[in-house]
Write a structure and sequence with these properties.
The protein is an alpha/beta fold. The chain has 15 helices and 21 strands. Strands 7, 9, 10, 11, 12, 13 and 15 form a seven-stranded mixed beta sheet that branches. Strand 4, helix 5 and strand 5 form a beta-alpha-beta unit. It is elongated and about 80 Å long. The protein starts with a helix and ends in a 9-residue tail after the last strand. It is an enzyme of class 1 (oxidoreductase). Its EC number is 1.1.1.3. Keywords: Oxidoreductase. This is Homoserine dehydrogenase.
Length: 437
């Protein structure tokens, strides 16, 4: 261990020592972290540096009024890396150039706390090894579910179990949109509201198309099931194809619709998918509304454990960041278990909800039934609501449990039928084991 790192370790062992902290990013979460630190005045933790692009604008913001006058503001990352700060708190997001900065910080003997889910999903294992090599910490409790302590809960509270399945709602934006649609609003209106409220970006694709939740699912799989997944190999499906009629049909099936992130360990393979799914009304995930997050962890010995709370917003996320910061300041250790690279597939054996919009004519149901039968899929039910014109008729078929890939083969031929006015919508339906006990 170098002389500097020996000093940092010694500092962490002294009750009256001060751990110096630098914030990278002073946006919504960064400002909230400063507010929490100012309100709580945790002993032994001192904010000394803030880095941000266009730093003068941030220094004159409302949130900056709570920052001590002694703090050094800078837009030069080298000023942080060369400083005597002990912990770098990264709240900027993205891979580049943040990854390079944090690698330099770790090599320089500075611990890192981050809320960056893309960074941890794609580079977390390598960064963790680098932190271990230099005897410093890398904590990322805020990277999934904001203020819900799902990551520390899994790392410490569930490490003695063998987790076999994860099911969760980990994107507050999608949950806000879908729970509003459940109450009768249309997608475009709710998305615009979400953007105005700051829940969704001007380009909402990271949220609504599943990229954000996919990164979080990969992080949770690594922690809970010790399975390293390639995020790009995890299947995703957009929520933008969901319409009001789908909630009407879901209600008839005693379900609602949520963006669900699922991962299930099956030997050396992990089944993983992020997609809108039909969720039984008795499931804990059906109870989650607004920006609330919920994760259900299923273990071989401990059964189901549910984590729930506010997964979005500056202050809930800041709580997770500051909690990690305090853990670093007190040199708290986490349980480390071996992680193995696993193959990933989006195939699940599950019932499926198929919604068609057709120009009605004789033989349509028979043709769909034939296409499903040809690949070995059986129809479970047929639902058709009254009041829709024959020239644009929506109806739903549900299937008995079968593989997603099987359904996709059948729909490829069904989609080519002349009567089809839209691409058929296919959603997985969660089953009994995903319900609350």
């Amino acid at each position: 261990m170098t002389t500097k790192r020996k000093k940092v370790a010694a500092k962490n062992n002294k009750a009256d020592s001060v751990v110096k902290v630098a914030l990278l990013g002073f946006g919504t979460v960064g400002g909230s972290v400063a507010r929490v630190l100012a309100a709580s005045r945790f002993p032994g933790v001192q904010l000394t540096h803030i880095f941000n692009r266009n730093v003068d604008r941030k220094r004159n913001s409302e949130a900056a009024k709570l920052v001590p006058a002694s703090v050094v503001w800078t837009d030069n990352i080298d000023a942080i890396l060369r400083s005597d700060v002990d912990v770098v708190v990264e709240l900027m997001g993205g891979l580049n150039p943040v990854e390079g900065w944090l690698r330099k910080a770790l090599v320089a003997g500075k611990s890192v706390v981050t809320a960056n889910k893309q960074l941890i999903a794609y580079r977390g294992t390598g960064l963790a090894k680098l932190a271990a090599q230099h005897n410093v910490h890398l904590l990322h409790g805020a990277a999934v579910a904001g203020g819900v302590p799902v990551i520390p809960g899994m790392l410490q509270g569930l490490c003695g179990d063998q987790v076999t399945r994860l099911s969760g709602i980990v994107n507050g934006t999608c949950n806000y949109i879908l729970s509003r649609m459940e109450a009768g609003a249309d997608y475009a209106t709710v998305l615009a509201d979400a953007q105005q409220l700051g829940y969704a970006e001007s380009d909402p694709s990271a949220d609504v198309d599943g990229y954000d939740a996919r990164a979080k699912l990969c992080i949770l799989s690594r922690i809970a099931m010790h399975a390293e997944l390639d995020p790009d190999a995890v299947a995703i499906q957009t929520i933008s194809a969901i319409e009001a009629i789908d909630f009407s049909y879901a209600k008839e099936l005693n379900c609602t619709i949520r963006q669900v992130s699922r991962a299930e360990l099956d030997g050396k393979i992990v089944h993983a998918r992020v997609a809108p799914m039909l969720v039984p009304l008795v499931s804990p995930m059906a109870w989650s509304h607004g920006t609330q997050n919920m994760v259900v962890v299923s273990g071989r010995f401990g059964g189901d454990v549910v984590f729930s709370g506010h997964g979005a917003g500056g202050e809930p996320t800041a709580v997770a960041v500051v909690s990690d910061l305090l853990a670093v300041a007190q040199d708290c250790k986490t349980v480390q278990l071996p992680v193995r690279r696993r193959e990933v597939t989006g195939d699940f054996l599950a019932p499926h909800y198929l919604r068609f919009v057709v120009d009605d004519k004789p033989g349509i149901v028979s043709a769909i039934s034939g296409a499903l039968s040809k690949v070995g899929a059986n129809i479970d039910s047929l639902l058709q609501r009254r009041g829709y014109p024959k020239h644009r008729l929506p109806f739903v078929v549900t299937t008995e449990p079968c593989l997603s890939s099987t359904i996709e083969r059948a729909l490829a031929s069904v989609a080519r039928m002349d009567c089809m006015l839209e691409k058929p919508l296919c959603l997985q339906m969660l089953e009994v084991e995903d319900k609350a006990e």
